[in-house]
TrEMBL record:
Its cofactor is pyridoxal 5'-phosphate. Pfam families: DegT_DnrJ_EryC1. Keywords: Aminotransferase, Pyridoxal phosphate, Transferase. The keyword Transferase applies. Belongs to the DegT/DnrJ/EryC1 family. L-glutamine:2-deoxy-scyllo-inosose/scyllo-inosose aminotransferase subfamily. The keyword Zinc does not apply. The lineage of its organism: Bacteria, Bacillati, Actinomycetota, Actinomycetes, Kitasatosporales. Gene3D superfamilies: Aspartate Aminotransferase, domain 1, Type I PLP-dependent aspartate aminotransferase-like (Major domain). GO terms for molecular function: transaminase activity. This is Aminotransferase DegT.
Amino acid sequence: MSTPGAAPARIPVMVPWLGEEEAKAAADAVLSGWVAQGPRVAEFERAFAERVGAEHGIAVSSCTTALHLALIALDLGPGDEVVVPSLSFIATANAVRYVGARPVFADVEEATGNLTPATVDAVRTPRTKAVIAVHQGGVPADVHALRAVCADWDVALVEDAACGIGATVGGKSVGHGALLAAWSFHPRKVITTGEGGMLTTDDARWAERLRRLREHGMNVSAAQRHASSKPVVESYLEVGYNYRMTDIQAAVGLVQLGRLDEIVARRRSLAARYTELLSTVPGLRPVGDPGHGQGNFQSYWVLPAEDFPVGRDELLAALSEAGISARRGIMASHLEPAYADHGAAPLPVTERISRDSLILPLFHTMTREQQDRVVAVLREQAGG
């Protein structure tokens, strides 16, 4: 119970929508005795793949490990280049370095924060073997256009769909028809398993190899060994990794997947109200749907005009002082210390978005009063 006259509770930037059903599913997994990778992982893989329109799902420990395995499947290594957006969480570029290849940073379009055929072409070289297109903040990239040019260039296109579940391109799920798509279930994402990730593909041979690679390169999984009535002696066919998801996580994921439509509908409703309220605040451009698809509003970010009365960091400070947690916009990976000596072409749009944008609170249980508080601070800082 709140104390009369007390300051209102702090508004978080994100709260996962978890409840009793997820708690029971996790408890049931624990009581079943299957707490590592087992039947619930397999069920989650099937359900997730069906949801996004893929033939195969391979559950893993994170989206980062999914990206790593995707690049191994493509046999990328030293001497190869992979075009990536700098405007992305640093894991996108890091995964390229894990296989010894070189990430080449490309700029993005301002409206979506995503790669386009033109921005990729600007940095493409004869050594370019792949492109990683990120569906940034849940805004779908125009993968149909990117797939077309990548096919012409004989370059593989990987989708970093970490933020993308529930978003669509041309009426179909992000990841539908993808060569390889990597997904995240981190708590900041639309659905969560705590930590965890997924790879989806339509290629059965890749799926078989990726399942091996996530489990130390074994030719028979632990679940298959335990299910067998006869002794099974496994072989290790290649150097692999321990990138498995647990049945506890998968149990939570199955419940979350069942909530996906409701979660996305709620986030889109909240985003629409934000956009309506912000239409009266001069100098702020909110993120929105691109012409080729619909976003899930995993993040709701705004880009102040260059002549906005205060800078991004001052806006964040004003929001924090008012009891509102917001975040800086998406990072520019090429400006991070880890890539200080890496080199990059000029990336003016990336640097502008990263420098000036901010992410506003948006979560399933957010109230109208909380949204009004956020917008009131922005309006005050705009001089309104």
